[in-house]
Every structure is written in structure tokens, then in C-alpha cells.
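Q: What would this complex look like in 3D?
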Amino acid sequence: MTGERVPRSLAVYVTAACLVLIVPIGIVIVLAFGDQGTLRFPPPSFSLRWMQAFFGDPRWQKALVSSLAIASIATVVATTLGFFAAYAFVRADLRAKKLLLSFMLLPVIIPHVIAAIAMYFVSTPFKLVGNVVWIGICHATIALPIVLLILLSTLQGVDVNLERAALSLGASRWRMFTRVVVPLALPGIVSSALFAFLASFDELIIALFLAGVRSETLPVRIWNSLHLQVEPVIAAVSAFLIAVTGAILLIDAALRQWRQSSATRRIDVADAA
Amino acid sequence: MTNRSHAGNGTALIMPAVLLLAFVFVAPLVWFFVQALAKKGGPVEIATYALDVVTSKAVVTALGTTFWISLLVTLVVLVVSYPLAYFMAKSRGVAFTAVLFCVIVPYFTSIIVRTYSWMVLLGRNGIVNQTLQALGLIDEPLALLYTKTGVVIGMVYVLLPYMVLTLYAAMKAIDPSLMRAARGMGASAAYAFRRIYFPLSMHGVVSGSLIVFILAIGFFITPALMGGPSDVMLAMLIERSVEIMFDWSGAAVMSLLLLTATLVLYSVYYRITDVRRMMGT
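A: Here is my prediction, written as C-alpha cells for the whole assembly.
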């Protein structure tokens, strides 16, 4: 069956809407490679001037390192805890599953300003403001719901009989986990780790309160710069953040393909047997 | 074989994640509210103080601004998204992938970057004004940035993907044979859409609007950067009272207000929606 025909007016509208959605992203990338002091579009000529201004400035370098460190910590914490929680949701006899899940999704719903101020309030007496590990752990709370949602759908696709088979053949729970569940869920685990990383890497409000002067992240530096003036180096930093998003979306698309092809391969094997 | 799960009751597996949220997310909130309000004295003093804050001119104005901007943003997002999601639900192949790409890429781009791009576009000498002037449509540059219009445009852009993905999921669940049956029995395309398709997509309309409204009332980055001096939303007022006035008690009262509104709306959302669909996964 082919897709149903759509009216021409709808097709025109959708094309226009898609342009409005994607053009702002494209413009930032073009401006990042412009060669001028003001934000004129299109730029009269192109250069790597602003990219050099970004990667060559020690303060931006420091922000990049802070961002990477914080996002890595958040990724490890959120992916590990999220994996076990998702496994419990899918396989265990948990009570009040829906209520528990909606509790764990709260960090997405509760305005980040409120969470950030509360975290800042408890961080000050413990001298945790500017502590990279602590900011990473705080970011893990907002990355956790994303990991959970991705891994719930991944683990639902893992055949429970393979786990039962491993256990009945004498594998320990731990061995069943490491040799059966993790390998089968690996594409989903990698995906969830990537999106957890992105959630922390792009997060502004919590970082704004907790970073202090010591551990400013890239979004915090962009925020501070935007309050002073709209300077072109921000276009270069923004283009870099867009590139990170693009890379993660590409890897995720590749992982989905992998998941699908390994699923069909399993069916082929089953058919052959 | 028993039906009991080999993973047991799951408490040990889920506990680390629950503890993380309890200690790093929930506990700071509770501690902050208790400590910041206890500064004001006993229950009576706190209640009087809270009432003063909530009825103060700044908070009443911010509440109104927050409500109207969020409502407007939700309506605009809904109207803009519906045809997009409808198209996605009907199309496949390259057309589908292209639209999905245009929705997903902004969705996963940092909010600060998306806000920045619209600041560049809408500025006095920005691309939108340059284009309109070059086309001869306007003589003077329009004031877009640092106005309510700018805030609404920026927020619509940031929140649109949530609506499109929610609507798409709801529309994809509509059985296409129902529309074919209606057409086969003589209904016009418009009539079949109005009486069959639209009512069946209503579920997505309601849950999409709820999630967009919930996120809009807590918005901070976009209105703070794109709004004018009079476009102060509640989340901005909360941030300012801490950052500029060090007024923790006032911030706590306003945060409780915003949190209550958010949780009430979330509980409605929880009743009518499968929460697993929240992020469009």
C-alpha cells in the first residue's frame, strides 16, 4: 500500500513549515563560518575565524572541558541506574508501575528553575557549587527519565524466554544479565547513553546555578555572553552544539538499523530451524 | 512454569534510581521549601506571608503574563502542528523522513541555541526584518525581539516538536478503514474528516496541549532572552528573586505556586495518557 494522496495545499504548507523549522538551525551554522563582525546574512565571505575564536579561547576551552566532564558523569550514572530500573519495570512484579514511572518522569515536568534553585540551596552549605561531580549527579536526575523511556521500549523487545533459558541452563542471575540481557539490549543502551549525554551537555538552568565561576559549561557561557551582546563567536559555539546533536542523531539512526537487522536475522534463524 | 517473574519483585533493581531522585531531586525541593519558609516564623506567619507574596503586584502580573503567553503558545503550536502531524501520519518514504528530520533536529538541539537562532533572526537588523524590507513590505524594521511577539515565536519554536510527535502517535493509531468506510458511504472528504478523523485525534490534541502548556508555564530561558521588560513570566520572577534580591522565602512561595499548578496539570495528563509516550518515543 502506498501513502494516501494529500491535497496540494497541505503539501505546500508542510514544505513551508519544515523550512521554518530547519532554517534557523541552518542559519546559525552558516553564520558560524562567516567572516564579519556583525551578524549579516548571508555573510559576504566565509572563514574559520569564529571557529578559531571558539576553540582558541582558553575560557571557551575550559567550558568545553567542564561540559564534557559533567555530561560524562551524568551519562554513566543515569544509564546505569536507568538500565536496572527499566529492567525492573519490564520484567519484575513491581507494584503500582504506572505511578512509579510517572514519579520517575517528574524531572521532565517540574520546571527546571525550581529544581535548580532547590539544588543550589542545598549545595551552598556543603560547598558543592562548582563541583563537577555533583553537577554531573544533578544532571543525571534529568537524564534518567530519557534513559528510562528509551530502555523500556528496548527491553520490551528482548525475548524473555532467552533469559529463562539461560537461567534454567544454570547461569547465575549476574551471568544471565551480562551475557544475555546486556548484549541483546546493547543498541538501546548505547542510544540511551547518547541521549543522556546530550541532555546534560545542552542543559542550561541547573548548570547556571550550580556551576559557579569554576565550572561554567558551554550553555552557561553562551547565556552569559548573550546577556552582554550577541557576538558571532556564539554562532560558532552554537554550530558546535548542533554538530554534537547531529552526530548523536546519526549514530542513533544507525543503531536503530542495527537493532532492526539483528531482529530480522533472529527471525531468519528461527525460520531455518 | 510459574508466572512469577525471574526478576523477583524488582525492589533491589529499581532502588538505586529511586534513591537518586529522592536524594538529589525531591529532598532538595522539600528542604528548600521548609527552610526558606521557616525563616518567616510559625504557620500563621508563613500563611500571611505567602498570601502577601501571591497577591503582590509583581506576582499577580507575572501570573497573568505566564497564563496568557502559555495559552497563546499552546494554541499556536496546536494549529501549526496539526497539519504537520496529519501529513506525517499519511505519508511514508522520503517525504515522511524529510518532515521527521525537520521536527527531530530542532527537538534535540539545545534550547539556548534555538533561542539564540531566533534572536539573530528577529533582531532589529535581523534576517526577518532585512528580508521584509528588501521585499518592500515594510519601511521601518518591526520590533520583534524583546517583545511579547518575540517570546511567543521563540516558545512556539521550542515546544512545537512535543505537539507534533504526540499528535502523530495519536493519528497513527486511527484505523484508516474508518475514513474509507465514511467516504464509501457518501461522506465528503471534509465531512468525514470533521466527523470521524478529528474526533478520533482529539486524544492527541488534549494530551499534546497539556504537555505544551505544562512546559510553557515553567519556561525561563526563551522569555528571559527574548522578552521585553514587561514580559516577566513566573519562572523568571523566581530566578530574579534569588539571583538579584536573595529573597529565598519569596522564591519558595512562588515556586510552590508554580509547582502546584504543574503537578495538578500533570495528574490530569497522567489520567488520560500513557506516560511512556511522553517524549514521543
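A: To summarize the key features: Residues 118 and 126 of chain A are 13 Å apart (CA to CA). Chain A has one domain: 57-272.
Q: Very helpful, thank you.
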